[in-house]
Amino acid sequence: MDKRTRGPKYGESHLVVLSNLVIKYKDIIENKKSDQSIWKTKDVTWNKIQSEFNALTGIVRPAKSLKERYEKLKKDSKKVLASEKREIFSTGGGICKKIPRSEAIDKIISLLGISGEGLNS
């Protein structure tokens, strides 16, 4: 059984580049419609992101890998927001701990808007 080759890890600068490219094409990528023409447009857009990312970073990554990493960034951003909210309510009125955020996560949080923060309780 052959082991699959792993690509290099995403550095913080690579995640910032990816988040900037996603923000550039956010209207297409975050479109909630799901018909055939939208899927084709999204595939073309991810291929554009792939070529721009590869040109900017010098590391060759497939569009599928970039899309998966973006989805993971979104999950991580939501986890950070949830832990911040949990920390605020757990202090009982005292000062809460500041949870560190990376620049890429800050960009994704701004992209997500209300869907990342959830409903007020």
Percentage of residues in DSSP E strands: under 5%
- The helix/strand class is mainly alpha
> What is the chains' assembly state?
single chain
Low-confidence stretches: none
Task: Give the number of DSSP strands.
Answer: 0
Termini separation? 51 Å
Question: What integer is the average pLDDT?
Answer: 87
Shape, principal axes of CA atoms? globular
Report Rg.
17 Å
The secondary-structure element order is HHHHHH
Number of helices: 6
Describe the structure.
The chain contains 6 helices and no strands. Helix content is 67%, strand content 0%. Helix 1 packs antiparallel against helix 3, helix 1 packs parallel to helix 5 (103-112) and helix 3 packs across helix 4. The protein is globular, with a radius of gyration of 17 Å. By secondary structure, the protein is an all-alpha fold. The model has no long low-confidence stretch (mean pLDDT 87). 14% of the residues are buried.
Describe the SSE topology.
Layout: H1 12-24, H2 26-29, H3 36-57, H4 63-90, H5 103-112, H6 114-117
What attributes characterize this protein structure?
mainly alpha; 6 helices; 121 residues; 67% helix
Quick take:
With 121 residues, the chain is mostly helical. Helix content is 67%, strand content 0%. The radius of gyration is 17 Å and the shape is globular.
